[in-house]
Amino acid sequence: MVLMFQRKSRREFAPAHRRRILGASIFTAPTEDIDLHFTVAAGSFHPRPKVDAEVLRFMPRAISPFAI
Length: 68
What we know:
Oligomer: single chain
Shape: elongated
Distance between the termini: 24 Å
Order of helices and strands: EHHEE
Number of strands: 3
């Protein structure tokens, strides 16, 4: 999946330090590899929001830790 979120949401889905898994990353970290695809400036939208956006790419892991 490729999804766009507010810039601050990236910390929720893909924390910089994998040692601390918080927020939405509890659901995505075990099964998905998440990386920043690109950033979209706030000025690209009308009306202009107060924050930039980031497009994240969610790639399913080849082997799920829940697979038996």
